[in-house]
Design a protein that fits this description.
The complex is a heterotetramer, with 2 copies of chain A and 2 copies of chain B. By secondary structure, chain A is an alpha/beta fold. Helices cover about 35% and strands about 20% of the residues of chain A. Chain A folds into 2 domains: about 1-190, 3-Layer(aba) Sandwich (Rossmann fold); about 200-325, Rossmann fold (3-Layer(aba) Sandwich). Chain A has helices at about 5-20, 45-50, 60-70, 90-100, 100-105, 135-140, 150-165, 215-230, 245-255, 270-285, 315-325, and strands at about 1-5, 25-30, 55, 75-80, 115-120, 145, 170-175, 180-185, 200, 205-210, 235, 240, 260-265, 290-295. Chain B is an alpha/beta fold. The chains are: A alpha/beta, B alpha/beta. Chains in contact: A-B, A-C, A-D, B-C, B-D, C-D. At the A-D interface, helix 11 of A face helix 4 and helix 14 of D. The complex binds thiamine diphosphate (2 copies) and magnesium ion (2 copies). One magnesium ion binds near residues 172, 173, 202, 204 and 205 of chain D. One magnesium ion binds near residues 174, 202, 204 and 205 of chain D.
């Protein structure tokens, strides 16, 4: 076991994948010589060469579109999108090509493309650098969508994503890149939990709190704070957003009867909607209250000085917990 | 190019000079640069190219007829573009990989795709007609221009693997306005990708004349992206063959991409759903009919002493056979199994979709087979 | 009042807008000389000239991006996307520019852009011609999203969309283009219900059935069929998908206690998720059963011969009604 | 262009010929084509251009310092690109409209944007610093290349209205690889839009050398799209002014768009978050420092008999004053009101957002002011 930051754990995972399979190629803007603006690909070009770690021209459609061609040729491209807000120029190639080509070719052409996306806010960045676009992709049939939240998962999940024969949108919580954790660099994928599996982080009896990415740490903190207040929260890190591993969420909600979902993305049509709807379908008779969504507002990402009034934080999550428990909360007395 | 080279719609009236080896009336033009590339094309081979073109035109006519008779949902005719497609496709090696749009039926023919496979998609029975790896031809592309990037990526990979395999991207004049095509030129140049960008300028993008997309001959686009551009008479199968061979040779020698503009014309409608009389004139059509790609080859062969009548007869017989086989095969094509709607969404098991599939199977199981068959689309599965 | 098809009602609405305000310009591929592949803009170029009804080069990003520039200049561009599946190359300009520029400019720059999108399946079309991408846009802050379902609404709503100072994604149910209905060509916008308002089409006491676009007719048919079976369904045509006018849905569900949502788009993260989650939040104690979603499968749009096994139809909606009522249905006996 | 014109990274080592009116050492180059366009630029006016450049360089240094001191979140320095920006912006009329990227601080300066307004965005207090209609300059653009289409659309509109207003789009060398920029060229040419595409080729797109984006000088891109391309010494303010005036004049006369490549260099890091030593060399930097845009103007003025020392002193004094004002203004800039996070999402009332705003107001009301002020970002509003 080694102590690594999340960024370095990803770096190690990418190195692993490059070493294991010569068909793996990394592509992106500034990922080679510079090692990526977050240094996630640091040193890999020097180690594997310019044909394995490829600095590409400045075009996201170009990146994804050439990755499709490489996949046709049998490669397993790993594309870095520099920041969440820059994925949209590549949206057509992702939604109309990457997601559909296995279906459109009747299973003859595989699209084992991994698209890495540093996502989310909280770093005081400029416009377009703090977005949470995951719901667009979770709504797109043919894609898998995952989000890691800690170094150990990051290391394993990036290798699993690359090994997957399906295209994977791989979301990295950029404000946690520097968080350290234990990573087993020799872990075998065979023994690791599949990337599609959710992970229950704390056991609790009163409320089930579901989240992913950067907010997982915030949710844990909320659980700790709530415990002091006598409220026992079960925190689940979804890890996979498409498909969602509902089994542990269902099991938990059957016990707690109360569900809170937190994410940074806006509420309208966000992941919280899907999770609330699905858990209501599956656990209706166990629910003591309507599932509560604690999310970013439905606004363009605001200027840095306002982001703390946009992002769900510990207090807003606890307010959501109060709401689902029917305790005094910000909406007490407001007719729903 | 001065403005007077264009008519009111911006259509190019006096085309830029382009490579032409056989004139519309069947004369052989001597050309020191391009002749060496088609030295092996003797009268026999040319006759085979002629046969190819006759067959694919017949195939196209048959498909249009099948659509009119309700056997296909839609059909985008290639009529007029036979030389551009046959000439370029016959320049390819078997291991080269083709990325086409929706109109490259003649290319598919050259790649040995079964006509019924080709049409199955237009009949709506399958998402794709063939396994790309059996023909080294990707599934056709409807999103305009997207395949140019796929071809580029494929070519980058072929180069990184150290092979001398090339890729070719087919797209239309309209496609040159899409970002994807331009980005493909950027990537291809940057990585010296062994790819040929084969643009069939058939003068129209549905109802829009090429002059709306570009005021320059499209081949000139190439230079600014750092690659040679060749403008070729797209109705001259020999010239197209020569140009494509030149481009492929560059690609194989590691010299990177080439852009070819094949100047041709879509004689028919955009698709069977289109009414071209709304946007173009009879004189224009008549002018292009005189540049027919098939007639000129026959004229040249005849002038060269070949038994033109016999050749024509044989070709037509083969074409009719292909058409009859096609009709027989396509009209008996079975509808896909209902539950196959879920197949191949993912390559690996997917818990969500597997559950949805299970639910739909239960839903279907509620109905007995008899009533099931009877229902229409609005009425549903019942 | 005149009998018009939905396509002709739109045409008349566009003519109205062009005549009323010289800043209105129509742009798109094949919309001028040809009058659009669905003939929605038929005759308008001849009537208003090539600078008001503009055939554009073949590029969706180009179309939307130049519309942004025109809006900067004070125009009110109405962009036609030829088919739903061709909107994705313009996605970046829609999501990062059109949706955000009013916010990014602190309210100084208006983006009164209407983006018309013929959407949905059921016409036996080729790939990419039958998509239902509305949820992507409903999840995008800064946009308004509406869908018309009948000629009268089409006529008024397109005029309202163009008159709106906010950008509007305007979805047109392409398989209903030829359906006829009464249209008042002289209707004043001042008297018309705002486009943001949902419309209750049939009164019912047992089940609330919510949908939009092409399925509105199917839902009506389902209500008729159910009535024969003794089940009384309240059908609501949402009309606006962002924001959603929840008042009539809430009022209805408080009476019926049962909600079914139908749409052609896939289920994961579709509009149904948002509606189910929101109504559960607002009406939890009134719900007798979990809201039921009847949707397209989470698959790429299938080949034409399979589309009837993808699209919700009358029978599938009735099965959903049976489900929400706890009557025998396709999932009877299946553990949720 | 032969491969030997480039170094190992693909960087252009021997630039194509370009327009230059003042050499790096301050000599005036006679040029019959371009001189007539700057006949009115006497020594006084040139001295003003010099002062502009000195001021914006100082503004840039101050902003970098403010960022290092934690007063700004980020800053993208313009150092090295003063001539390209001042020369082009000074060619504009007040009614022309500017669409810029994130680095055009000098253009904003010319458009009378207050430096503190400019910096407020980088401080994170506002989504935008100014009302575009007060300066005829759009909010800056971070999505690479997107603004090229906006400028084109704006110009189309100006033309349809019958005005002779032009638009100008600023973007970088890297941006030429994005679909949007290429599509903008297509639309602009097709509609004869009065727009100037002003590409500052500063040799780098973050860590990527321009040779990765293009193997051709970028100005050559223009011809294939049907418009003239001008390659100009971007470190020569006079040459840039001339080239931009030529382009604007074409635009106003209804002759359509022009593409200008201003060859320049980014002397500083991409942004204050960047470390350029990871990807480029000291000799390269030294070479470009010798082509400094400011020094050459001063040298020329001095050689022309102007009191250079006095000019320099005055300019520096003005620059220091601007910098001091900026610092005073920016460091006292109030943080925005929490509830303003909801302002201006929509131009019209929106039931969903209004409800969400109301809920958040209730949430905030739960906290008293004292504890509210104390909290950090992770700790939340409490
Ligand atoms: C991204 C996208 N936008 C629009 C369309 C609709 N469309 C189908 S074919 C066509 C015209 C294509 O013209 P061109 O590229 O010249 O090819 P051709 O049909 O002439 O072979 C258009 C606009 C599409 N298929 N994809
Ligand atoms: C669509 C998009 N992709 C990626 C980025 C990240 N990014 C910001 S600046 C930059 C390089 C831009 O280079 P260039 O166009 O030469 O402009 P310069 O910074 O040199 O002025 C990149 C890749 C972005 N802002 N937008
Ligand atoms: Mg065409
Ligand atoms: Mg640059």
């Amino acid at each position: 076991m080694t102590q690594l930051t999340l960024a370095k754990a990803l770096n190690a995972g990418l190195r692993h994948a490059l070493a294991d399979d010569e068909k793996v190629v990394l592509m992106g803007e500034d990922i080679g010589t510079l090692g990526g603006v977050f240094r996630v690909t640091d040193g890999l070009k020097a180690e594997f060469g310019a044909h394995r770690v490829v600095d590409s021209p400045l075009s996201e459609a170009g990146l994804i579109g050439t990755a499709v061609g490489l996949a046709y040729r049998g490669f397993r491209p790993v594309v870095e999108i520099q920041f969440d807000g820059f994925i949209y120029p590549g949206f057509d190639q992702i939604v109309a090509q990457v997601a559909k080509l296995h279906y459109r070719s009747r299973g003859t052409v595989k699209m084992p493309i991994t698209i890495r996306v540093p996502f989310g806010g909280g770093i005081g960045a400029a416009e377009h650098h703090s977005e949470s676009p995951e719901a667009y992709f979770a709504h797109t049939a043919g894609l898998r969508v995952v989000a890691c939240s800690n170094p150990a998962d990051a290391h394993l999940m990036i290798r699993q994503a690359i090994a997957s024969d399906d295209p994977v949108l791989f979301f990295e919580p950029k404000r946690r890149y520097h968080v350290k954790g234990e990573v087993d660099l020799d872990a075998s994928l065979a023994d690791a939990p599949p990337m599609g599996v959710a992970s229950t982080l704390t056991r609790g009896d009163d409320v089930t709190l579901v989240t992913y990415g950067a907010l997982v740490q915030t949710a844990r903190d909320a659980a700790t704070a709530a415990a002091e207040d006598g409220v026992s929260i079960e925190v689940i890190d979804l890890r996979s957003l498409a498909p969602i591993d509902y089994a542990p969420v269902e099991a938990s909600v059957r016990r707690t009867g109360r569900l809170v979902i937190a994410h940074e993305a806006g509420q309208q049509g966000g992941m919280g909607a899907e999770i609330a709807a699905s858990i209501t379908e599956r656990c209706f008779e166990f629910l003591e209250a309507a599932p509560v969504r604690v999310t970013g507002h439905d606004i363009p990402y605001p200027p840095a000085k306002l982001e703390r009034h946009h992002l769900p934080d510990l207090d807003r999550i606890l307010d959501g917990v109060d709401r689902v428990l029917g305790r005094p909360n910000s909406l007490s007395g407001v007719e729903a | 190019m001065t403005p007077s080279d264009r008519d009111a719609t911006g259509l190019l009236t006096r085309p830029d000079p382009f490579v032409q080896l056989i004139t519309p009336t069947g004369e052989r033009v001597r050309d020191d640069v391009h002749d060496p590339w088609v030295r092996d094309i003797d009268l026999d081979v040319l006759a085979r190219l002629y046969r190819d073109m006759v067959v694919v035109r017949r195939l196209d006519t048959e498909a249009t007829a099948l659509q009119r008779q309700g056997e296909l949902g839609l059909w985008p005719p290639l009529a007029g573009q036979e030389a551009a497609q046959i000439g370029s496709a016959r320049a390819l090696r078997g291991d080269d990989f083709v990325f086409s749009s929706y109109r490259e039926h003649a290319v598919a023919w050259v790649r040995d795709v079964q006509p019924a496979e080709l049409l199955s998609v237009w009949r709506g029975t399958a998402a794709s007609g063939w396994n790309p790896y059996e023909h080294n031809m990707a599934v056709p592309q409807i999103i305009i221009g997207a395949q140019a990037l796929h071809a580029t990526g494929y070519a980058m990979g072929a180069r990184w693997e150290g092979t001398d395999t090339a890729a070719i991207a087919y797209f239309g004049d309209g496609a040159t306005s899409e970002g994807d095509v331009n980005e493909a030129l950027v990537f291809a140049a940057s990585f010296d990708a062994p790819v040929v960008f084969f643009c069939q300028n058939n003068q129209w993008a549905i109802s829009e004349p090429v002059g709306l997309q570009s005021k320059q001959p499209l081949a000139r686009r190439a230079d600014g992206f750092g690659m040679p551009g060749i403008r070729v008479d797209g109705n001259d199968v020999l010239a197209v063959l020569a140009a494509t061979r030149i481009a492929l040779d560059r690609a194989r020698r590691g010299e990177g991409p080439t852009f070819i503009e094949a100047v041709t014309y879509r004689i028919g409608p955009h698709t069977t759903a289109d009414d071209p009389t709304r946007y173009r004139t009879e004189p224009e059509l008549a002018e292009w009919r005189e540049r027919d790609p098939i007639a000129r080859v026959l004229a040249f062969l005849e002038a060269s002493g070949v038994d033109a009548e016999g050749l024509q007869r044989d070709a037509q017989a083969e074409a009719d056979r292909v058409a009859a086989d096609l009709r027989a095969a396509i009209t008996t094509l079975a509808d896909p199994e209902p539950m196959s709607v879920f197949d191949h969404v993912y390559a690996e098991p997917n818990s969500h979709l597997d559950r949805q599939r299970d639910h739909y199977a239960r839903y279907l199981a509620m109905f007995d087979d008899a009533s099931h068959e009877a229902s229409g689309s609005e009425g549903g599965a019942r």
